[in-house]
Design goal:
This protein is α/β, with parallel strands linked by helices. The chain has 19 helices and seven strands. Strands 1-2-3-4-5-6-7 form a seven-stranded parallel sheet, sandwiched between helices.
């Protein structure tokens, strides 16, 4: 019996839990030595304890026998289909989601290369995109994301074209600005145009944001552990600035007219939370009103910024947020369900947590949250027969 029953649910955020050799078969040989020299590869070597442990675990018949019963209880590398593509279709069958938008874990942030070493950044991004296309090729319900650095205008155009040709279904860009120019720079017009023409969304994801100033961690007290047991991920303080970069980047894209020039192009803010959304929408409307006399770009906007958001932006709340309150204060068109499978952050029962927060919402808003807003975001990236199978059967 699948986790989801009697409802069409599209999952706007799921992940691979790649092992450290995940890009080996996909990176151009001329960049292999430079890639091998990255600090992450040295910290997590291919012959280290993690790959040996993870492979042995999933080769163990006794462990595998418990996979079905523990589909939402086992997390990270223990989860079925976390890193073996042949296991992922059965995992999705057990979850019962109609489709999954899939993101990397190993490559989030592109190893910090975008500004420091653009040539290697595009090489690792290209390898990631090939790896993602290969993983998702086993099942058409898997919607792979391509990472597109914004460091170099011409390289960005080239890698976006390659990603679309690979059959990937969303173009992931960093939410923090590239060094030296805005993400709304006019030279990125070919990127937006390509995505709109292909009917694919531009998405942002946690990992591409400006990180918290590390000085905040020096409070004279013992270092706080996060729920992974380490010190490098989410804590209550480092959680706070997660949406700041995407708020500013999206505001720049809206104010500079990118969304108006490409009115069919959809954007997604994934695993960046959503409690910020209502206030940010109102703040942009206030900014537009305050500066409209002095800024011609604001006078050219087709609608208030908040209305452009409802038209073209889709956002995933965290399961611990009050999704009902967010929807009531931002609009039924904007929010999406996500599981974060197989990450710990997604919890063991995301449907219950979201259902509880949506208990007083109209049925139409709930349907949009679980299905229709995702269909709208994904456009041509989601096959027609996967968009709302129940409706077609009923018809």
């Amino acid at each position: 019996m699948p986790y989801v029953e009697n409802r069409i649910v599209h999952d706007a955020d799921s992940h691979l839990m790649e092992l450290s050799d995940c890009l080996d078969a996909f990176i151009d040989p001329k960049y292999r030595l430079a890639y091998d020299d990255l600090p992450k590869l040295k910290a997590w070597p291919r012959d280290g304890k993690l790959p040996a442990w993870a492979n042995a675990l999933h080769d163990n018949p006794e462990f595998r026998a418990g996979s079905d019963a523990n589909i939402l209880l086992r997390k990270n590398y223990e989860a079925l289909g976390a890193f073996r593509k042949q296991d992922r279709p059965h995992a999705l069958d057990l979850l019962g989601f109609t489709s999954q938008l899939i993101f990397t874990t190993w490559c989030l942030g592109n190893f910090g290369l975008d500004d420091e070493n653009p040539e290697l950044a595009y090489a690792t991004a290209r390898a990631h995109n090939r790896m993602m296309a290969d993983f998702c090729s086993v099942d058409r319900r898997f919607l792979g994301t391509a990472y597109i650095p914004l460091s170099d205008f011409e390289r960005t155009k080239t890698i976006a074209r390659e990603a679309i040709d690979l059959g990937l279904k969303a173009l992931l860009i960093p939410s923090k600005p590239p060094r030296g120019h805005s993400p709304s720079h006019i030279a990125f017009e070919p990127l937006w145009a390509m995505a709109q023409e292909a009917g694919l969304p531009i998405v942002f994801h946690v990992g591409g944001e400006e990180k918290l100033n590390s000085d905040y961690f020096n409070n004279g007290l013992p270092r706080v552990k996060d729920f992974h047991g380490g010190e490098e991920n989410f804590t209550s303080v480092s959680y706070m600035p997660i949406p700041h970069s995407v708020m500013t980047t999206l505001a720049a894209l809206i104010f500079d007219g990118v969304l108006d020039r490409h009115p069919r192009l959809k954007f997604g803010a994934i695993e960046l939370g959503a409690s910020w959304l209502p206030g940010w929408m109102r703040n942009m409307d206030s900014a537009a009103q305050a500066f409209i006399k002095n800024e011609e770009r604001l006078r050219k906007l087709s609608a208030r910024p908040s209305e452009i958001v409802r038209r073209q932006l889709r956002v995933t709340p965290y399961p611990h947020e009050d999704a009902g309150w967010i929807i009531a204060n931002s609009g039924e068109e904007v929010c999406l369900f996500s599981s974060d499978f197989p990450h710990v952050e997604g919890g063991r029962n995301p449907l219950k947590r979201f259902n509880d927060s949506l208990a007083n919402m109209p049925a139409r808003a709930v349907e949009r949250f679980y299905c229709d807003n995702f269909v709208d975001l994904m456009g041509e990236g989601l096959a027609a027969d996967l968009r709302n199978p129940a409706a077609r059967v009923a018809a």
